[in-house]
Amino acid sequence: MASKEAIRVGVVGVGRGRSFMRSAQATGMALVAICDTWEERLKEVGQDLGVTTYTDYDAFLDHDLDAVVLANYFHEHAPFAVKALTAGKHVMSECAACHTLAEGVALTRAVERSGKIYMFAENYPYMAYNQEMRRLYQAGEVGEFKYGEGEYVHPDPADVKLGRSCGINHWRNWIPSTYYCTHSIAPVMYITDTRPVKVNGFVVPYDFDDPSETMTVRRHDTAGIIICRMDNGAVLKSLHGQLRGHGNYVRIHGNRGLMENCRHGDKQRLRLWREPWDKPKGTPVETVYTPDFPEHHERATRAGHGGGDFFTTYHFSEAIRTGEPPYLDVYRGVTMSITGILAWRSALDDSTPLDVPDFRDEAVRKQYEHDHWSPDPTREDKDRPGTSIVGDIAPTEEARVFAKEIWAGKGYNGD
Predict the structure, then answer these.
(1) SS3 sequence, the chain?
(2) How confident is the model at residue 129 (pLDDT cuts 50, 70, 90)?
(3) pTM for the predicted model, two decimal places
(4) Fold of the domain built from segment(s) 125-302+328-366
(5) Is the pLDDT of residue 387 over 80?
(6) Among 17-31, 111-125, 329-343, which stretch is predicted with the lowest mean pLDDT?
(7) Which residues in the chain are classed under CATH 3.30.360.10?
(8) How far apart are CA 200 and CA 237, in angstroms?
(9) Band of residue 300 on the pLDDT scale cut at 50, 70, 90
(10) Level-2 CATH architecture, domain 7-123+314-322
(11) Which end of the chain has less Cβ packing within 10 Å, N or C?
(12) 90 pLDDT above the threshold of 70
């Protein structure tokens, strides 16, 4: 594709997908079609943007597209991606990359067969302080990675939770607490160029004394904690969920220093610490500053998720133009996604350690190609695992009535 030729892109999902629609033009893409099953909202957005709309995904793929952005439901990305790749489209997929290990196998094979670009749209690595920590790490400022922490803590009141999860079986209402782990794992992988090879999963159980949980129809636990052994021997702690204390934090301990974003005041600031005997002569032990984005600062600061929404789209378009896979390729996307799945298996088995398979290896993939283990309540599977460590959770009648009131206000009148 010529460097100045616009990449014709279609977006699936008129909710979360709006951010990708907005960033398309800024990164050399031309939005030409959108797809969703929510017909009223689809028509409204399509008219606003002046693009073709589809409720049928197969018909959408027949449109004159170069690339597809998947912003549909969390647990439905892989089948949509495989179909798009098979149709000859480049794909950028929101998290998670896959919902089962078998889907991870199918997705990696589809990318390899197609020869097309696959980008995992995990946006948290591209926050300014995470990009700066990657630069510092690669420059050797803190030495070799030994221990890291990634946190994505996102509490909300019950009405807000319900407003973004219309329907009793919306994925946000049942997905196990370890599954939504990529926002906390990805920045550490990106900064240090390491990957998980072993995982232990833990959960903070569902809180029957917290109205922000009991006044929803959610049936999963409060938070997930994943301990990973990385491929260089380092240890990573991933924390994500509904605990009080909203924030996104990354902490990297090297054998020559520490770096992290600040927990107090402006959380976009970065703190670099080196012991007196480790630091270069003439430099302070502690340095705290607010880093800029290394490039495209103005466009990134106007985008969502701390600039991450711009950079995922930017790197996707650059990968298509150059033919070079992006950093967040299918292998990294699948790795961090299956880490959450395996962590749930671990948590259900008293947090026993489990190996994280490397799906770059076809011989390894063969072992998992029929692994369809899933807690999805809409799937008919007699061996289906539960969604909470405390067992089946039945929403109260009061919560169901409240949910329907909130959903009706969003234009959803189903169960």
Answers:
(1) CCCCCCEEEEEECCCCHHHHHHHHHHHCEEEEEEECCCHHHHHHHHHHHCCEEECCHHHHHCCCCCEEEECCCHHHHHHHHHHHHHCCCEEEECCCCCCCHHHHHHHHHHHHHHCCCEEECCCHHHCHHHHHHHHHHHCCCCCCEEEEEEEEECCCCHHHHHHCCCCCCCHHHCCCCCCCCHHHHHHHHHHHCCCEEEEEEEEECCCCCCHHHHCCCCCCCCEEEEEEEECCCCEEEEEEECCCCCEEEEEEEECCEEEEECCCCCCCCEEEECCCCCCCCCCCCEEEECCCCCCCHHHHHCCCHHHHHHHHHHHHHHHHHHCCCCCCCHHHHHHHHHHHHHHHHHHHCCCCCEECCCCCCHHHHHCCCCCCCCCCCCCCCCCCCCCCCCCCCCCCHHHHHHHHHHHHHCCCCCC
(2) very high
(3) 0.95
(4) Dihydrodipicolinate Reductase; domain 2 (3.30.360)
(5) yes
(6) 17-31
(7) 125-302+328-366
(8) 10
(9) low
(10) 3-Layer(aba) Sandwich (3.40)
(11) C
(12) yes
Give dist(CA 165, CA 282) in Å, integer.
54
Amino acid at 209: D
Instruction: Give the range among 259-268, 291-300, 364-373 with minimum mean pLDDT.
Output: 291-300
pLDDT of amino acid 19:
79
